[in-house]
Amino acid sequence: MARSIYNYTIDVLRKVSFDPALFKKELKKASRRLLPYEYSELIIWVKEFTANKPELEGVLV
User: What predicted TM-score, i.e. pTM, was given to this entire model?
Assistant: First the structure.
């Protein structure tokens, strides 16, 4: 079940990537919902996803 939350979180982040504030809010929610190792994987995914999106550069700061 936890993996489905991880996949759902990625889907949500893709859908809200048009708005940096909303993206950051959903990322914060994910930090509370996911297991620590899943959150670490998500951060790696976010770094790769935002690499070519300058509007999302500051979300991990």
Answer: 0.87
8 A C-beta contact, residue 24 and residue 56: no
- Residue 23 burial (CB < 10 Å; 0-12/13-18/19+)? buried
- Residue 49: partners with Cβ closer than 8 Å, 6 or more residues away: 13, 14, 17, 56
pLDDT tens readout for residues 10-49: 999 999 999 999 999 999 999 999 999 999 999 999 999 9
> What is d(CA 23, CA 29) in angstroms, rounded to the nearest whole number?
10
Q: How far is CA 48 from CA 1, 25, 40, in A?
A: 25, 19, 13
